[in-house]
């Protein structure tokens, strides 16, 4: 992944929490793009959770995170494998806001 603020908001964006650092990223295919930093997502097993369509990230992701860490993770028999969370933002143009949705990826062991 290359961290790059892009003027085109619609698309798939990533919010990556990694050991105290938060990255906002959009996948780039050009590995030589200017003004980018590379962050490689570690291989492993991830539990992936999804929100419903149409909500705002500021309310949907905290609600999803609470369900994961307060309910699912303590009862599922897994542990978070490392201090890493990946948020996936599926964003659309203003006239298609009802399609937006989010994912939260948690590395588990």
Strand and helix layout:
Layout: E1 11-18, E2 21-26, E3 46-50, H1 57-76, E4 84-91, E5 101-107
Q: How would you describe the overall organization of this protein?
A:
This protein is of the alpha+beta class. It is 18% helix and 31% strand. It has 1 helix and 5 strands; from the N terminus they run βββαββ. It has a 5-stranded antiparallel β-sheet, with helices on one face. Strand 1 and strand 2 form a beta hairpin. It is flat. The two termini are 24 Å apart.
Helix content: 10-25%
Largest sheet data = 5 strands, antiparallel
Unreliable runs: 1-6
How large is the radius of gyration? 15 Å
Q: For the terminal residues, how far apart are their CA atoms?
A: 24 Å
Helix count, DSSP H or I runs of 4 or more residues: 1
- Principal-axes geometry comes out as flat
Mean pLDDT, rounded to whole units?
88
Estimated share of beta-strand residues: 25-35%
What structural class should be given to the helix and strand makeup? alpha+beta
Strand order across the largest sheet: 2-1-4-5-3
SSE topology string: EEEHEE
Annotation, overall tally of beta strands: 5
Oligomeric state of shown chains:
single chain
Features:
1 helix; alpha+beta; flat; 5-stranded antiparallel sheet; disordered N terminus
Entry summary:
This protein has 109 residues and is α+β, with helices and mostly antiparallel strands. Helices cover 18% and strands 31% of the residues.
């Amino acid at each position: 992944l290359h961290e790059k603020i892009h003027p085109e908001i619609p698309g798939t964006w990533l919010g990556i929490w990694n050991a105290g650092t938060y990255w906002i990223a959009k996948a780039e295919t050009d590995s030589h793009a200017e003004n980018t930093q590379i962050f490689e997502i570690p291989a492993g097993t991830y539990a992936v959770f999804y929100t419903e369509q149409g909500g705002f990230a500021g309310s949907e992701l905290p609600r999803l995170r609470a369900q994961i860490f307060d309910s699912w993770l303590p009862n599922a028999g897994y542990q978070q494998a490392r201090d890493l969370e990946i948020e996936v933002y599926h964003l659309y143009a203003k006239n298609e806001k009802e399609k937006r949705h989010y994912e939260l990826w948690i590395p588990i062991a």
